[in-house]
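Quick one:
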Amino acid sequence: FEVTLPGVGEVAGRVLTSDGVTPVANAVVTFTLRNNIFFGLSEAALTAADGTFRFGNVTVGGYSVRVQQAS
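Output:
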């Protein structure tokens, strides 16, 4: 069976190159839960052409975010 917990918010951002201006398209953003019984559960998204990403239905807790440029 599957358990789905309702989220309470969202996390959104924008990935830029080291110049702080140029957006990074198609980067892989991984969002990983770091506490409670679902430790290690993760979701991934690709950045849009303008470097933006969004994770919806986010539950309360600690997370880590990792970005990798698509190969």
